[in-house]
Amino acid sequence: MTGTVDGTGTRVKRGALLVLPLGFLCLFFLWPAGTLLWRGLSEGSSEALASGRTWNALATTLALASVGMAGSVLLGLGSAWALYHIRWRGQAVARALVTVPFVLPTVVVAVAFGALLRPSGLLGFLGVDQGVTPIVAAMVFFNVSVVTRIVGGTWASLDPGTSIAARTLGASRWTAFRLVTLPALGPAIAASAAIVFLFCSTSFGIVLVLGGGRTNTVETEIWAQVRQFLNLETASTLALLQVTVVALALAAAGWAQTRRERSLTRARIDGTRPATRSDVRLSVLALAPVALLIGLPLIGLAERSLHTRSGWGLGNYGALLTIPDRSNLPVPVWRTALTSLESATIAATVAFALGLILASAVARSTRSRWLDGIAMLPLGVSAVIVGLGILVTLYRPLPGGFDLGDPRILVPAAQAVVALPLVVRSLIPTLRSIPPDLRAAAATLGASPRRVWWRVDWPIIKRPIGVALGFAFAVSLGEFGATSFVTRPDHPTLPTAIYRLLNRPGVENVGTAFAACVLLATLTAVIMIVAERWRGREVVPW
Amino acid sequence: MVKRKRATGLELTDVTVEYPGNPPVTAVDRVSLTLARGETLGLLGPSGSGKSSLLKAIVGIVPLRSGRVRWDGNDLTHTPIHLRGFGLVFQDGQLFPHRDVTGNISFGLEMQGVKPEDRRARVAELLSLVGLEGYESRRLDELSGGERQRVALARSLAPRPRLLLLDEPLSSLDRELRNRLAADIKEILTSTGTTAIIVTHDPDEVAMMCSRFVRIDGGRLALG
Which residues lie closer than 8 Å to B57 by C-beta, 6 or more apart? Predict the structure, then answer.
């Protein structure tokens, strides 16, 4: 019991510290999003619910998320086997590469798939640049790593004995997999599928860029209602619809997660085995599609960024330094990169500090579980709702003469709200792994609570903290869903600038957008590499 | 000498198992051994002696570095596990957690394509053999440690393996239960005429269950 270690006084102080994250969440999330949803409930237009556009968007959201989920599970199962069940040299690098997509900005990935599949692109001959194929491909690109990680983690600690037992009873490798291994992996597969469905149903940036206004999900329909039709009533009704979809996905994810945790309570054992020659063919079969899916768009993007009107060259990169012609971008792209870096620095610092306070509280006591729920909410209602909520509530004078209506405050705030759940998620497991008895031992040796934290907690958590911080930074830097609503035209971030460049006629603008994407991807990669260096081991919240 | 040809059974020639590493670890070193049909051989050795590795090599779970595994003169060295017809009783049972008692015991019969009604009859027969009549629809978490090992034994016997290997089948049980189950195993193996190898580190168990035994230490056989 930690209760015997903490004096009542320190518990009060710790409680006081919680005011910071809770106050922040109330101001920048609960109040704005709550107001938006309340509007949806009270003034909600029956007009919106009667509209074919609305139901079309809902059906599209569910269909795309289902297909994206199925594709991710299919590819993720194979790579979980090849990357986590069998062991081979160089595997660590391959595992790290598979997780790359997870931290890439959605706009970059969407643009990359667009570049790859457009008629003149590397895979243009497939003729699938229109329609839903690029959208689904991009969804799978993002989520294959989620499935790989969750299912792989279970597979790596799955007792191989039962499967061998099946073999000695006459089952072939495939039969043993089907009848013994697959049922054992079931809870992990279900948990990953539910989370992937959640991610797919909130992939605003992908659908906005690749759907081109023809394919609309609930989120992009909200965007269209706000930006094109200036219809906030319909938008808030749609927001309510979106939250319902996400809540259902979250409930499914929570249910699957409980089942998975129950199945993990058995003693953890090493379920891996060295790869043999006979595994080579299956490994190639499992990993080649994933490698192509991840590699080709990035290659395609780099290739397109070097295309200029006068042949191959660095012209598009040169254009990052000037204000683009015939575009509605008031500043050169490099300025928007600075804006993004500045905003992400603030957002990551805030999200990290508040996340650490929240995660410590959640990890220390089971009574603080409700805090975990609140911290997870922004992820649950999707970034679009976060952004739209801030747009409709905070861009006007507040009671008491305060005015927060400045993108330099609201953009980092929105990004911090989006990054916060991910920070909390990635810190809790580490904080929980500190045995309470260790703290008690330090306390009985005369350490004050502050010294206990400094001498026991900090040395254990300082490495994962590097990754949590880097992750928060990367997420804020590439954040698009909330930022696109909150930012002002004269104050674009790099991702919103890319979107605006794409939507302006002119080959130069599109070329510049490709170069800007490469710039954004490079910045993200540098951040993650620095963070991984600090820690030396991979970590992503799931 | 007349019977010799018929009774060849298991024949190991210079079996060597090596685990990769730097330097590689030789777990089993040129072991040669023959076992006639119907015999029960005890394989006795301390932990780390290579007895489990030898067992795994016979079943086909680990590949041989060199040497041969034959049954009745047929080379099985490169035959996949499921086509060898060798059963294995695991130290910790390794029952399928998502199947009930019947589901576990009938697994091997399903693999052989036995018809459902014949499977039911065989499961009942085996349950009575291991002293668990009426346990057909029990869930695994309703079983005690001794009952689980009995189910594991029944599961391995169900498809009538030509050779049954038992890997420390009693080590997870307490002493009293161990003596009782040892006697039962001995009787079951004799009554079914099953050829068996029992791996253990306990000389008492060997005395109770086996017709002869060999010692293994440092991956090499020593005469019993």
Answer: B15, B17, B28, B63, B64, B69
ipTM > 0.90 for the complex? no
- The residue of chain A nearest to residue B86, with distances taken between CA atoms, is A168
d(CA A321, CA A324): 9
The whole-model pTM stands at 0.81
Nearest to A287 by CA among A435, A107, A90, A465: A90
Angle at A493 between CA A222 and CA A427, to 5 degrees: 85
CATH 3.90.226.10 applies to domain A1-40+313-542: no
Supply the DSSP symbol for A402.
-
Q: Which element (helix H / strand E) includes B214? A: strand B212-217
Q: Does B87 touch chain A (CB under 8 A)?
A: yes
Q: Which contacts (CB < 8 Å, 24+ apart) does range B18-25 have?
A: B18/B65, B20/A274
Q: What would the pLDDT profile of B95-121 be if each residue is shown by its tens digit?
A: 888 889 999 999 999 988 999 999 999
Q: Do B107 and A161 touch (CB under 8 A)?
A: no
Distance of alpha carbon A177 from its chain centroid, rounded? 31
Evaluate whether B82 touches B111 at the Cβ level (below 8 Å): yes
Cβ separation B111–A173 shorter than 8 A? no
Distance, in angstroms, between B79 CA and closest chain A CA? 12
| Residue A131 CB neighbour total at 10 angstroms | 14
CATH 3.40.50.300 residue ranges in chain B?
1-85+161-224
Q: Measured between CB atoms, which of A161, A170, A180 is closest to B108?
A: A170
Spatial distance between the Cα atoms of A302 and A519, rounded to a whole number of angstroms: 10
The string over B153-177, giving b where at least 16 C-beta atoms fall within 10 Å of a residue's C-beta and e elsewhere, is bbbbbbbebebbbbbbbbebbeeeb
The predicted-structure confidence for B141-152, as pLDDT tens digits, reads as follows 889 888 999 999
Tell me if B92 and A171 make a contact (CB, 8 A cut-off): no
CATH top-level class for B1-85+161-224? alpha beta
- Give Dmax over CA atoms of chain B in angstroms: 54
Query: So where are chain A's domains?
Result: 1-40+313-542
B110, amino acid identity: E
Is A240:A36 a contact under the CB 8 Å cutoff?
no
Report the distance separating Cα B143 and Cα B152, nearest Å: 12
CA closest to A275 among chain B residues = B20
CA distance A165 to chain B (A): 7
Question: Chain A residue with minimal CA distance to B161?
Answer: A169
**Å between B196 CA and nearest CA of chain A:** 14
Q: Radius of gyration of chain B from Cα atoms? A: 17
